[in-house]
């Protein structure tokens, strides 16, 4: 059985880590370099770095910041935000990223997913999907949750898997920052329908929520931000808790 992964996420704006609720009301959470080093030392399985306003503001991810974080890590490192073309992917990999996350650019140009997979390998291509559920229907959003697309979550996830994505990072906008648990029903459907790993994002508030994402939601990994940034959950204790629940994690 593959070990389930615990992934802290650094949402970065203006060079500082921030965290909000339902994608708004951001508050500062610390220096990305220091946080990255801490999480690597604490036993996180991977780290995700998202320049959350890059697509909205039409600029590139902070390459220097990525390089500074990468130097502090001994774990796989995924970078997203403002990645629109293969040159952006190459620049992030050169700066020390192991994977890139694409979201808005993939929705606008789905061929980008296949291009990244064919040039750099599927393992490099993580497709992030921000979706909101309204009246039982999940819709994908662009530009950090600002722009509805009319694309359905499950259809889009199947399409990018077919195009060569290596993983799906699914964030429920309804659950983001609310700390009431992940969108486990949607996660379970994604896990059933997709041949690639699914990362759960949005809703972590307690250790049990991670256990539920892995058992009820059948996710391959669980990503969280504020519960780690503000010291509400420590990664070593979380992993011991999950192992006590019979969930396979790396200690």
Overview of this protein structure:
- By secondary structure, the chain is α/β, with parallel strands linked by helices.
- Helix content is 37%, strand content 28%.
- The chain contains 11 helices and 12 strands.
- It has helices at residues 32-42, 54-57, 63-70, 86-95, 104-108, 111-120, 153-163, 184-193, 207-215, 226-229, 235-244, and strands at residues 5-13, 16-21, 24-30, 47-51, 77-80, 99-102, 125-134, 137-142, 147-152, 167-172, 198-201, 221-224.
- It has an 8-stranded parallel beta barrel with strand order 1-4-5-6-7-10-11-12, surrounded by 6 helices.
- Strand 8 and strand 9 (147-152) form a beta hairpin.
- The two termini are 15 Å apart.
What labels would you give this structure?
251 residues; alpha/beta; 11 helices; 37% helix; 8-stranded parallel beta barrel
């Amino acid at each position: 059985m593959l070990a389930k992964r615990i992934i802290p996420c650094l949402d970065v704006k203006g060079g500082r880590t921030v965290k909000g609720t339902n994608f708004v009301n951001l508050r500062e959470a610390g220096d990305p370099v220091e946080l990255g080093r801490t999480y690597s030392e604490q036993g996180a399985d991977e780290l995700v770095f998202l320049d959350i306003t890059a697509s909205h503001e039409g600029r590139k991810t902070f390459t220097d910041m990525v390089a500074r974080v990468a130097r502090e890590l001994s774990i796989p490192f995924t970078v997203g935000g403002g990645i629109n073309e293969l040159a952006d992917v190459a620049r992030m990999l050169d700066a020390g990223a192991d994977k890139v996350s694409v979201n808005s650019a993939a929705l606008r140009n789905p061929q980008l997913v296949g291009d990244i997979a064919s040039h750099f390998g599927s393992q490099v291509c993580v497709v992030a999907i921000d979706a909101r559920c309204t009246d039982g229907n999940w819709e994908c959003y662009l530009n950090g949750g600002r722009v509805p697309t009319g694309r359905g979550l499950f259809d889009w996830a199947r399409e990018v898997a077919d195009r060569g994505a290596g993983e799906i990072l699914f964030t429920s906008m309804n659950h983001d920052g609310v700390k009431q648990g992940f969108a486990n029903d949607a996660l379970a459907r994604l896990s059933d329908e997709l041949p690639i790993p699914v990362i759960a994002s949005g809703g972590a508030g307690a250790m049990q929520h991670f256990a539920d994402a892995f058992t009820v939601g059948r996710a391959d990994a669980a990503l969280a931000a504020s519960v780690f940034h503000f010291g509400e959950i420590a990664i070593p204790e979380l992993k011991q808790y999950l192992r006590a629940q019979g969930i396979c994690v790396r200690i």
